[in-house]
Amino acid sequence: MVARRLAVVALVGGLFAAACGNSGGTDKTTTPTDSTVPGATTTTADLSVHLDVDAPGVTDTEIQVAVITSKTNPIGGKYEQFIDGIELFFDKINSEGGIYGRKLVITTERDDIIGLKNAEEVRASLSEDNAFATFLATLELSGASLLAEAGMPTFTWNINPQMAGNDNIFGSIGAICFVCTGHFLPWVADYEGYSKVGILAYGISPSSVLCAEGTKKSYEAHTPDIDVVFYDDTLEFGADLSAQVAEMKSAGVELISSCMDTNEVFKLQTELKKQGLDAVQYLPNAYDHEFLADNAELFEGAFLVSQYVPWEQSPQSPATVEYLKWVESSGVNAVELTQVGWIAARQFYEGLKLAGPQFSQQGVIDGLNKVTDFSADGLIVPIDWTKQHKDPTNDPSVRGEFECVTALKITGGKFVPAYNEPGKPWICFDPADEAPIPDFPSSRSFAPGGEG
Amino acid sequence: MEKFLSALIEGMSFGGVYALVAVGLVLAYKTSGVFNIAFGAQAFVSGAIYYQLHNRSEWPIIPAFLLAVVVAAPLVGAALDRMLFRHLRTAPPLSRLVVALGLLVAIPEVVGLFFKVTQATQYKGIVPGGEIVYRPLSGVAITRDDLSIILSAALVAIGLTILFRYTSLGLRMRAVVESPRLTELNGIRSDIVGTTAWMLSSFVAGLAGVLLPTVFQQVSVINYTTLLTAAIAAAVLASLTSIPIAFAGGIGLGILQQFVSRYLPTGNVFASNVKPSLPFIVLFVVLLFKRSLSYEQGLKDPLAGVDPPPPVPASAVRSRELTIGTRIFGFVVGTWWFYSVLFLWNDIWLDRTIRILIYAIIFCSIVVITGMAGQISFAQATFAGMGAFFSAQIATKQGVSVIAAIFIASAVAAVVGALIGLIALRRRGIFLALATYAFALFFDNTMVRYDWVGGGIFAIESQRPVVGPVDFARPVPGSTTRDTAFLVLVLVVLTLVGIAIIWMRNGTTGRFLDALRGSETAAASIGINATKARIIAFAVSAFIAGLGGGLLASYKIQFSSLDYKAELGLFWVVIVVTLGPRTVEGAIQAAAGFVLFQEWVLPTAIPWLYNHALPFADITAISIGWQQIFFGLGAVTYAKHPEGILESNKTASLTRVQGLIDRFKSRRDSEIETASV
Known about the structure:
heterodimer, A: alpha/beta, Rossmann fold, 2 domains, 5-stranded parallel sheet, globular, B: mainly alpha, two-stranded antiparallel sheet, 6 strands
């Protein structure tokens, strides 16, 4: 019971970036077919070469990794399923013979308890686990500096500001700019014809407060005709929202941008319904099929973004098809974090490939840091690790050339891709576009072959 | 007008749940003499069962309700009575409070082993179509679920009032609390009446349990405990005796919260802090100024106001030889541990050892306030937090040296502690404990959210101290340097704190506190100044907690208010009273339990033992909930072993060993005597 609010939810953090549109982005306007590394020489043939390697967690037969998740949490976070995704990808690679004659194995799973014990668990892992790499899906990343000081290749579900500035930590997206202005929400509001917006955030979560600030700035910067008529970034976790909804109702709010997790947006939607306020919610963290199955009717008409190419995109990309094939064959209950785990493992594998048969921890880090467009075969917006470790808050040059999101609407009890062209799941804006109303975004695909 | 009516109706809905729980608390107190702070946990049991049956397994409402509320809830009540509270009827109120606290910690975790729902879903309550909204007036909305709450609370309050005022069963229930033996002389089976009372109060808890999720939209134990705090305010307003006042208090509190919420501006930190803090403020004010709340309330037994003398400590049962032997044993174990940490074990054991020592310092504060003064304070985590927040602020913003900053911050905590002791002077036992909890929750919900106290929303940076040539900076991972300097620092501080406590216990203040523990009136009659002694105990306890809190912040370098939450303080009390609240040694053992159970015993040691004992077994970790279950259930032994389980076992073991030594000596003496003859 130690504090549910404590967690408060970085969950949303990762998607604030998508909402504000400034964390990731890519320099590439072309469709990459693989990670681009100037001077990289590793080929598929090299992957079967077995050489003696003297590195932590590496045996003759295995490359061992540790995983830390916020398995214990009171906010509904399914972080433990991050491990399933890693295992699925490892199973796939191992079924193909592994890499450098070794299998990829998770040897330790740790629980940092809502992120409260993140630094302790990281310290324990560094001392005890003898792991070659560490994977994290945690609400806090207070152990980031320890991992950096230890030179540990680290692969995370990036929702934490501490990721920035550590070139050993590779997130599912680049370093996040929480307060930068973005184009997606203002564009949607304008496109859908909304003129009055409400913004809500937790007052006890830094990422939530910063998200609200960034969202407000975005509307002010790009849509002068749209008024933010309600703004509350002081909410308690689990707060009664009746007063807020009453005020939004009297202010005539049509669109609500919240920076809160699924539990709270659920409460908000229930209260909206009760008080008869027919406003549409933007859900920052709701690409969850279980959540949809339970609450489809309540959220009809709401829209959201996904961290990766949604399964509902048609045609599905080969990467999505392969992921779903492994999900089906393993029988795991796949959620959003499962696929994030798969992508993290994919990135680790890429690092090993780049490090070569005589790999080392530093070799993996150095290899990935030369990659300019890691997209997990098109599942995510390409990341340029030559610059996206840096905090983009005060350095626009590391923000990427385009900001892209994959949007969905809840329609007829289903997630339905929205605003994009078929086969091109990402809608992308030009971050430099300072027009009062953003131009209609371009649809893109980052999958090899250019579709899905 | 629309806003007014809307707030009124909404407030009645929230207030209905507060009222139901408040009525349940009063019912439990009236019928068992137990201030049942585990009431929320009992409600959670029924809420979880109902959710599983009706919402997940799609049972119809009536059978799901019958099983969860009419069958399961009373069974829980009967079990608690039969196994625990029946044996505590003559125990001091404080012991009963600690037992209930243990249950509060343990029950949700036991339920959690079988039930896990953390994500919000459309909760279906006990009336069909609960989400259907009625709009009696323009702009005023009320759902069927809201109506079910208000009506249930009203019916329960009316029913119980009738029961106590006009039925013989109600009279018997009250009589059993006051004197079970006297009621038995009248031919009444006090055990059956007592069990009935527990089943009835548990039924009310179960009803609250299935109604609550319609308000919070989630079946989560946190909501049940949050609600409990608000309900406590209403129950205390009713002096724990009047059901109608508890009902009115609950409803009133709900309405007051809604008016505060609607009429204060939204988006304002002060306003957003006031609403959740309101129940704590009300509770604190009521506890301070309501004259009818006195310690002796509910204790009609003339001897009940006099606590029995504390059990003989383990150190008192051993002879000089055994004392030397145990000290040598302790020295050897301690030396082995520190030698291993410094030269054999890896950094993680060094880290754990440092944290054990820091938590031992914090837990020593519980030794002072509970073990010596005989009071329960739920604000120890808050005092530790003060030490952390203020020392970090002073050191980083004012440039004061870290050690000095920790001392200044601890002094601030001591002053606040003394003030709490002073203003809550007329309260003892349960009410003092509740006052400290109200203060802790108020501090959590309001003060720490200001930048100048808890750093606002961001994690707080703290610093490591530098003392002369010694830099206690954190070593770089992977380097050959280790954190041994900090280990020595906390070891020195713990030693000084330990010496101070022993000195205090053996000095005048300790003797006065012992006397006050036994009988305040008797102590006053021999000239002991109770006010002074209690204020000193509070101040010293808060100072020690602040010291530990400041050291923990400095050690972690980056920390947040979450490390010092009031709820954590509840668990700290549980773990210390379970293991040994009267000695420094007990505090160290509790700290070791706190750190190692979660980090080593459950995830590593038990699975290793299990897997080696059973070759076919393959478990990787035990749920960390077992820590709460283990220590929560351990706390229920407090009434029997107020000196703590470990201390009790140690005493028993030493008594046995001493017996063997005495027998051996006596045999040897007789042999020598025989030989000489």
